[in-house]
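[audit] Reproducing an earlier prediction to check determinism. Same input, same settings, fresh worker. If the tokens differ from the archived copy the diff job will pick it up downstream; this log only records the rerun itself.
[audit] input (377 residues):
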Amino acid sequence: AVHKDGEGRVFYGNSGTGETTWEHPLEEIVRELAGVCRVCVTLSRPMRERSIVDLREAWEAQAKEEFALWYSVKDSTTGKDYFCNSRTGQTMWEHPAEVLLPGHFLKLRAADRLIDDEYLQDLATMGSTLNEGSGQTWNSMKRTLESGISTRASNDVKDDAHQAMKEELASTATELRAAREDAAKVRAQFEALKERFEEAKRNAENEEMLRSKAEARLEQEQQKLEGVQKDLDILKDKFDQAQRSAQDVELKHSQAEAKLQEEQQKLQSAIAECEALKQQQQASNQSSTDAQATMKQELAATTEQLQAAKDMLAEAQRNAQEVEVKRSQVQVQLETEQQRLQSAITECEAWKQQAIASKDGSEQGMKQLEQFLSAPR
């Protein structure tokens, strides 16, 4: 905004930040455009158009480069965002679009005006009027205006220049308002993109958290599975060991039965030898002392063998008792089967008698008899 101090001097203020300056915010841009204008009015239209196209491309590239240097930073005290230039370190509260786009927009609009022949004709007419009124060039007239020399001709020129400047400033103000509106739109789009970026960032963090939880849970399940697999391997080893033990017991049982038969044969042989020795002892009562001593030794040895045979016989009897129990169980099963067989024979005889007594040839009775005989028991 434009202001005046107590002495009537013009200064400029930023309504957003409250900052003030004596220089016009767009003074550098206006000076640059004035130089471009002085060059373009001397060129032919084709060369002027090509030059303006090159200028637009250069200005757009410059604007993109300058806009990319700014990044937002959150103020730790107020919590608001401010913007910093990564190249110069300059900071400001305004969005870069509000500062950079108006000047860039003014350059582009001014370049478009330089293609307008009527606008250039007005500039030429204004330059001619200035030269006729003062007899000086444009640059010398500018120095005359700045030096404050008061002549009638210069006053007329100053009035005309002032009016033209007012019109240009009015046009510039209109363009600036449009540029600010565009900047507001760009800022709104930037804020929307920023919100979308923050939301995407939060979603990514949530997904990362969920993925970490899923990985931790998967690792726990894998550990449980490994524990179950270890328990299964232990149970499998115990089962194999029990199966081998059962096979060993079965083998020992077979060996014990074979040994029992062998010991029974030895016992029979020992009993026969004992009877023979008794007969020899009765027949040789009149034998010599040496023979008696020998007989006693042989009798003692035989007694020891007999005792061992008795021990083996006792073990064999225990084994025989177990075998007898099994034989009794088999005998009971055999008797049960015999009873069932006898019952079947009785039923068969009854069917046979019934078939013989039938008057119609007993065909149906014979079929029933065959079905009964073929039925499983």
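[audit] rerun output stored. Observation attached for the diff report: Residues 2-195 form one domain.
[audit] end
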